[in-house]
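Supplementary Text 2. Reproducibility record for the structural model of the 464-residue chain.

All settings were left at their defaults, and a single model was retained for analysis rather than an ensemble. We include the record here because the model underlies the residue-level annotations in Supplementary Table 4.
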Amino acid sequence: MNITIETLWKQGRNKAEISRVTGHDWKTVSKTIKCLERGHYPEKKPHPSLLDKYKIEILEYLGKGLTGRRIYEELCSCGIKTSYATVKSYIASIRKRENICIRFHTDPGQESQVDFGYVGLTKDNSGKKRKTWVFNMRLSYSRLDYYEKVYDQTVETFIQCHEHAFKYFNGIPKYVKIDNLKAAVLEANFYETNYQCLYKQFADFYGFSPLPCRVREPQEKGKVESGIKYVKRNFFAGRIFKDGEDLDRQLKNWLDKTCNARIHGTTRKIPIEVFRQEEARRLLPLPEKGFAIPDVGQRKVYHDCHVYFEYNYYSVPFDYVGKIVDIEATEHLVKISYNAKQIAVHVRCKNKGEFITDNSHYPPYKNHLSTEYQESYQAKMKQIGANAEQMFFYIVQTHPYEWNRTVRGILNLKKEYPAEVIDKSCKRALCYGVNSYSKIKNICKSGAYNQPSEFNVEVYHAVN
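Retained model, structure tokens:
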């Protein structure tokens, strides 16, 4: 609007004509021209948004990585009346105002940053090409780097790389800033982070505090991001490695003689000199013994409610079928967790091919041996009558693993026959030692339940 009015004013148009052409009020045109004569455009009045009072919630949703559509749905579920277009525009304005990169400064020994970077396929010691990552821990103050080649990003590898870096620095920083890696963080939350349990134990053992970055905020670990780019471009690019040992040897030589001995592009200082003069003495001391990593791993829970570990099968509650669980094995126990919550504990089996099963881990409707499950069907048979209840006991005793099908069949007879008929039919079947669903059904159908029959003493004693 201001540019249009300015253009027309410079063309010699009067205020009334400009008002008519632009459709703006004459007073507005006059005010704009007065400001232009003073050399500036009129200041825009702030227009508060309906969503301003929900800004904290929206920032939290953005921190969790929710899309604009999902944020709109969450706001609507809270009873906030707005449109998707309004939410989308508000999020865009937040990002425009707040997408400012803040440079983080730290004291000596205060912080390090860690991350993995994929570097492609390299040959291992057997000559086989494998996917390869480089681990980087960079001290934020001195910019001293530690690099290590790895073939996976498991929590065990992550912890071992930390230990090697601490030994290289001969000390431990107070904080370790991490990306939201699955090896360290199970769930990124705006207010509270759910750490991988083994990594948290490791951090407590060494006395440092992990600091996860916010989701989609790479500038918060910009130093290690730069470190990953640097090692890719200045070490891995254009080099040929015979095998894994050759790669390790060249990387160590480059780390000591080139990487940490160069003049850093940002600080314009040599990292190893800054480290020795200002930072080394500020690091936390190393413990006398290293962290003992227990036998751990991740397994998928099979449809039979078991996980496979060391040639044996351990049961897990049926709610976790299909999920990936964490396994920690001590000398005598196998502990199974999901999202840092322990869900099962078993005595560790030393044999092979064994099933270590807690029957309570099965769903009640699948666990035929469950007392609770049996009692529920006993109650249903008792509602039919005393003879039907005795038939239930007889079937369970004679067919302990297949009783439920027969019992369910008898209960299903209620759709066709009164409870009294079914109960009398069960009585006649008991007299002749019969516990077959089809025969009990035939008794109901033929009316044989009304015929006299002798009581079977052997069946009575067997049941009671």
